[in-house]
Specification:
The protein is of the alpha/beta class. The chain is built from nine helices and five strands. The longest helix is centred in the N-terminal third of the chain and has 16 residues. Pfam families: CRAL_TRIO_2.
């Protein structure tokens, strides 16, 4: 993650506006779900301190003391735009309180892609302590997600379903042999390359 060019207040408002993190619905075991939309994560415009403060104040208290699951939507994530970096991921994970980590029972990883699978297979056990790697459950299609999550309680951006359609017609994308970079997801909130797109006008 690079040094942000917007204020801490604007960063917090940006996280809220984009709904990157949302406690939303339950899985079929009745556990609360923390939904994370990776494509909406503006890695270049957030500091670790602001992100950790937001999670500590706005998300972790709402999870309570009961077991919960994470639904991480990896659809459309690009390393140059939405990926915070390995060291940042480790720092975010290390900042999670122990009781929250202990209550995390499962991570549903939607649309992982070949590179993500390889990265986690080779580095996941070393990066994340507390058995997090063993809690990962890869989900290649939205339809398979409903086997684990209550369908009527979870909202998904339209571009997630569009990507599913692409995978049906271009299955080699699952194995990293075709790119989906050319698709423009008209229904998605895009993270523009200019800081001006995150002005107070956009946030308000």
């Amino acid at each position: 993650m690079t040094t942000p060019q917007i204020s801490e207040m604007e960063q917090e408002q940006l996280i809220e506006k984009l709904e990157i993190f949302k406690i939303h619905g339950r899985d079929k075991r009745g556990r609360k779900i923390l939904r994370i939309i990776g494509k909406f994560f503006p890695a270049r415009f957030l500091s670790l301190d602001v992100l950790n403060k937001y999670l500590e104040e706005k998300i972790f208290p709402r999870l309570g003391r009961k077991p919960f699951a994470v639904l991480y939507v990896h659809t459309g994530v690009q390393r140059s735009e939405n990926f915070p970096g390995i060291s940042a991921l480790r720092a975010i994970y290390d900042a999670i309180p122990v009781n929250v980590r202990d209550n995390l029972q499962e991570v549903y990883f939607l649309h992982p892609g070949l590179q993500s699978r390889l990265f986690l297979a080779t580095c996941g056990r070393f990066l994340f302590s507390g058995g997090l790697y063993g809690k990962l459950r890869y989900i290649s299609r939205v339809d398979y997600l409903w086997e684990h999550v209550r369908r009527n309680e979870i909202e998904m951006p339209e571009f997630v379903y569009d990507h599913d359609d692409d995978l049906e017609y271009r299955p080699m994308m699952d194995y990293g042999q075709e790119s989906d970079h050319a698709r423009v997801y008209a229904g998605a909130t895009a993270v523009d390359s200019s800081v001006s797109s995150f002005s107070m006008r956009c946030i308000s």
